[in-house]
């Protein structure tokens, strides 16, 4: 028997110890220990990310309205395998309560999953939630794709984290996100029978328009100054905004807008305002950051949640 080695029966072991911690060494670490060179090494993939308030800090699955904004990681297993998932937070002085959840991912999923999925589907794996530096969980999974979601317990808590997945067989891990996409035009066409509703604007428009009954960006700013309802909204119609509006809505390339274009703009502003109000029901006039993506989606803009990307895997 080697020095320092001892044997103990299982019954005595259970009576003597309350916890058993196992250290899983990745290939980089075990390379420094000669006695491990002949051993089978773990395959390991990692993702380094962060939880940011209103963007990627949705809290645990108890928070149904924000859980989906957490980082969503796509894990792919080529065959049935027992894996170890380890979530490490970078906060030392004020550690957060952290953990992770896994779901079976629908086939052919390449973009982030919306909140309706989590309301309808049960989780497959749930780790412990604790304020320790690291949370680990070992589980046996079938071949296929899985959705891993690392979270803080409470929404809105910020810190950086690293998530590692260990396996004895090859695996893949990547971030699920949606590329910026224009689903539909954000410009709403004015109804053909809406003439009376725009008569109040037409007189002002014609006063500022040229002989061809068109306005440029400077004249558009004056027009909005006269037509918008309050000083705060008027202040948003800066010269740069007006230039961008003309650039977007000018279909002739003349750098000018006709009255029909202006009617479409006013209809669009009303539609955007209604979408804004629809997502600010609890606190009128204040749109929470975590709802911005849903509000933009309603008017046709699909944006990314994440700026960070998976680091190199080993």
TrEMBL record:
<dbReference type="InterPro" id="IPR011992">
    <property type="entry name" value="EF-hand-dom_pair"/>
</dbReference>
<feature type="domain" description="EF-hand">
    <location>
        <begin position="237"/>
        <end position="272"/>
    </location>
</feature>
<dbReference type="GO" id="GO:0005737">
    <property type="term" value="C:cytoplasm"/>
</dbReference>
<dbReference type="GO" id="GO:0005509">
    <property type="term" value="F:calcium ion binding"/>
</dbReference>
<dbReference type="InterPro" id="IPR022684">
    <property type="entry name" value="Calpain_cysteine_protease"/>
</dbReference>
<dbReference type="InterPro" id="IPR002048">
    <property type="entry name" value="EF_hand_dom"/>
</dbReference>
<dbReference type="InterPro" id="IPR033883">
    <property type="entry name" value="C2_III"/>
</dbReference>
<comment type="similarity">
    <text>Belongs to the peptidase C2 family.</text>
</comment>
<dbReference type="Pfam" id="PF01067">
    <property type="entry name" value="Calpain_III"/>
</dbReference>
<dbReference type="InterPro" id="IPR036213">
    <property type="entry name" value="Calpain_III_sf"/>
</dbReference>
<dbReference type="GO" id="GO:0004198">
    <property type="term" value="F:calcium-dependent cysteine-type endopeptidase activity"/>
</dbReference>
<protein>
    <submittedName>
        <fullName>CalpC_0 protein</fullName>
    </submittedName>
</protein>
<dbReference type="GO" id="GO:0006508">
    <property type="term" value="P:proteolysis"/>
</dbReference>
<dbReference type="InterPro" id="IPR022682">
    <property type="entry name" value="Calpain_domain_III"/>
</dbReference>
<dbReference type="InterPro" id="IPR022683">
    <property type="entry name" value="Calpain_III"/>
</dbReference>
């Amino acid at each position: 028997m080697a020095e320092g080695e001892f044997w103990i029966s299982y019954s005595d072991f259970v009576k003597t110890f309350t916890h058993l911690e196992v250290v899983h060494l990745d290939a980089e670490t075990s390379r420094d220990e000669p006695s491990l060179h002949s051993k089978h090494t773990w395959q390991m993939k990692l993702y380094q990310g962060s939880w940011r308030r209103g963007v990627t800090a949705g809290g645990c699955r108890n928070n149904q309205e924000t859980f989906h904004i957490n980082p969503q990681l796509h894990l792919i297993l080529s065959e049935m395998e027992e894996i170890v998932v380890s979530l490490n937070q970078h906060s030392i002085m004020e550690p957060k309560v952290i953990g992770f959840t896994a779901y079976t991912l629908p086939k052919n999923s390449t973009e982030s999953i919306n909140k309706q999925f989590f309301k309808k589907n049960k989780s497959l794996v749930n780790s412990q939630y604790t304020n320790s530096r690291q949370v680990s969980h070992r589980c046996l999974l079938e071949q296929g794709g899985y959705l891993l979601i690392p979270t803080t317990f409470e929404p809105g808590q910020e810190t950086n984290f690293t998530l590692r997945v260990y396996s004895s067989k090859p695996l893949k891990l990547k971030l699920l996100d949606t590329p910026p996409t224009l689903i539909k035009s954000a410009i709403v066409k004015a109804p053909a029978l809406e003439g009376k509703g725009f008569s109040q604007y037409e007189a002002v428009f014609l006063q500022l328009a040229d002989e061809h009954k068109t306005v440029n960006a400077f004249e558009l700013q004056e027009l909005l100054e006269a037509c918008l309802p309050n000083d705060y909204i008027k202040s948003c119609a800066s010269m740069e905004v007006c230039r961008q509006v003309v650039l977007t809505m000018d279909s002739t390339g003349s750098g000018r807008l006709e009255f029909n274009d202006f009617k479409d703009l006013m209809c669009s502003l009303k539609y955007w305002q209604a979408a804004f109000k629809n997502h600010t029901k609890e606190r009128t006039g204040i749109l929470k950051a975590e709802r911005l993506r849903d509000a933009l989606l309603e008017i046709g803009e699909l944006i990314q949640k994440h700026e960070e990307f998976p680091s190199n895997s080993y």
